[in-house]
């Protein structure tokens, strides 16, 4: 049995250097997806679930990423956000035939949306400043999502996770202002 296969009763994993840690729920889900989805054709239905995140949010005005950031008084993010959103969109297109990758994207995009609506958006609505919002985005979304993904794909960067957030912004799944 290799080190990467060692699992303990409490759900902890071994990362190969005698450091033990408990998996977050997102990490555990990604681990389960990676193990269970290989070779299962019935997972085609995940395409429909992913499509929910790849399409514009129903009933909201289509004004593009830049317009949405400007509505949220975040002109400082437009250039970087556009570049990172496009980078993630290219990755999704490249991985569209991989059911494993699509399933992982569903979990990640869902986690980002949930964290946004539970932590970030209320802070925006309460009038928190840009520095505090950026700090919350990093602590509540970028770092935990990156930590969960990088175990399975060492090429995933925090920049790509940011691109996922901006991708969702462009499709109006998350809003940086009072109204999307």
UniProtKB/TrEMBL annotation:
Pfam families (UniProt xref): CTD9
Domain ABC-three component systems C-terminal positions: 64-176
Name by which UniProt lists this protein: ABC-three component systems C-terminal domain-containing protein
Organism: Trabulsiella odontotermitis
Lineage, uppermost ranks: Bacteria, Pseudomonadati, Pseudomonadota, Gammaproteobacteria, Enterobacterales
């Amino acid at each position: 049995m290799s080190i990467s296969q060692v699992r303990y009763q409490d759900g902890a994993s071994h990362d190969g250097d005698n450091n033990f840690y408990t998996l977050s729920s997102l990490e555990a889900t990604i681990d389960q997806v990676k193990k269970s989805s290989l070779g299962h054709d019935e997972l085609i239905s995940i395409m429909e679930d992913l499509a929910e995140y790849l399409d514009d949010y129903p009933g909201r005005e289509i004004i593009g990423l830049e317009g949405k950031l400007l509505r949220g008084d975040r002109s400082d993010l437009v250039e970087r956000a556009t570049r990172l959103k496009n980078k993630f969109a290219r990755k999704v297109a490249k991985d569209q035939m991989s059911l494993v990758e699509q399933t992982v994207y569903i979990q990640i995009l869902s986690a980002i949306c949930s964290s946004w609506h539970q932590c970030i958006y209320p802070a925006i609505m309460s009038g928190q400043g840009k520095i505090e919002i950026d700090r919350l985005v990093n602590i509540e979304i970028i770092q935990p999502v990156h930590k969960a993904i990088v175990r399975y794909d060492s090429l995933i960067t925090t920049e790509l996770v940011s691109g996922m957030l901006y991708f969702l912004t462009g499709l109006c799944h998350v809003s940086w202002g009072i109204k999307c």
